[in-house]
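Protocol step 4 of 6: structure prediction from sequence.
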Amino acid sequence: MTDTAYSQVLALCITGTNTFSTLLVMKGTSIPAFQTLFNYILLTLIYTTYTIYKYGPKKYFKLLWVDGWRYVILSFLDVEGNYFTVLAYRYTNLLSVRILD
């Protein structure tokens, strides 16, 4: 796949997330942490499996031991960013969130 194809798939996923977040808010439901939980589970399964396959278990655990703190900080920031983006749908409309996102 080319970079353009990956970009289009990513844009489609973001549009789906935005649409479903708006629909949930219109129904009176706001569950920002739960909405992104399955995304992170899927990402963890895919990238952990790929990294162990590519480097082997020994190098994978060495990577976690040496650079794991960086991944924890970046993961925390990413989760909080997504949480507040999804939470923003409670207070505004889709266009405003996309502009601020």
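Step 5 (inspection) to follow. The chain has a mean pLDDT of 82.
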